[in-house]
Design brief:
With 218 residues, this protein is α/β, with parallel strands linked by helices. It has helices at residues 3-13, 30-40, 54-62, 100-109, 140-149, 179-187; strands at 23-26, 48-51, 67-68, 76-81, 85-86, 92-93, 110-118, 131-135, 153-156, 167-172, 192-195, 197-198, 205-210, 213-217. It has 6 helices and 14 strands. Helix 1 (3-13) packs across helix 2. 48% of the residues are buried. Bound molecules: ribulose-5-phosphate.
């Protein structure tokens, strides 16, 4: 089974967690693209979706799923999204697709975060995948210097501007043994909009697609 097939299995398994007449928070990425296909198959059963990126919004609309503004929604029961890495505490690195800020906002509002991944995303210690950090463009050099003080090797992602008009710095060479503490520390650096650590708001349920089926971790 290919990695993409494992992603598809995890994504379709998420349908089980969607309640009738609910509004569904939708993440971003190739795994989520499979989830949007799955969601389209039950679109008459849901009220619509709140999207975390222009990319997902375009696909949702193309498949006839209503996209609602988060500000119009007082309650979001579920958020479904992928991850670049996930550890045993359901803490994640996200932002490989540069959508981390809106993803973190929608995840914060949702009652339940269902993370859909293939088994290659599971790790003991986060940090092998470079940590994406969204920065205000005028602060990118300053933020890079601050990241070096934390032991990271910062690399500006070339040619990428986020949906919010900002840049992404990928922080390489971090062994993240205390994700909660690092997330907080990065939040305190002026010029960083969002860092890709999802430790304060981890996933609640993880669906792991593998060649032997999809495992549910609660
Ligand atoms: C986008 C993300 C994605 O969830 C993450 O990059 C995983 O992507 P994929 O499902 O394509 O492997 O955080 O910003």
């Amino acid at each position: 089974m290919t990695q993409d097939e494992m992603k598809r299995h995890a994504a379709w398994a998420a349908l089980e967690f969607i309640s009738k007449d609910s509004i569904v928070g939708v993440g971003t990425g190739s795994t989520v693209n499979h989830f949007i296909d799955a969601l389209a198959s039950i679109k008459s059963d849901i009220r619509g979706a709140v999207s975390s990126s222009e990319q997902s919004t375009a696909k949702l609309k193309q498949l006839g799923i209503a996209v609602l503004d988060l500000n119009e929604v007082s309650e979001l029961s579920i958020y479904v999204d992928g991850a670049d890495e996930i550890n045993g505490q359901k803490q994640m690195i996200k932002g490989g697709g540069a959508a981390l800020t809106r993803e973190k906002i929608v995840a914060a509002v949702a009652k339940t975060f269902v993370c859909i991944v293939d088994s290659t995303k599971q790790v003991d210690v986060l940090g092998c995948f470079p940590l994406p950090i969204e920065v205000i463009p005028m602060a990118s050099s300053y933020v890079s210097r601050e990241l070096k003080k934390l032991g990271a090797t910062p690399v500006l992602r070339q040619g990428v501007i986020t949906d919010n008009g900002n840049q992404i710095i990928d922080a390489h060479d971090l062994q993240i043994t205390d994700p909660l503490q690092l997330e907080q520390q990065l939040n305190n650096i002026v010029g960083i909009v969002t860092n890709g650590l999802f430790a304060r708001r981890p996933a609640d349920i993880v669906l792991v697609g593998s060649s032997s089926g999809t495992k549910v971790i609660k």
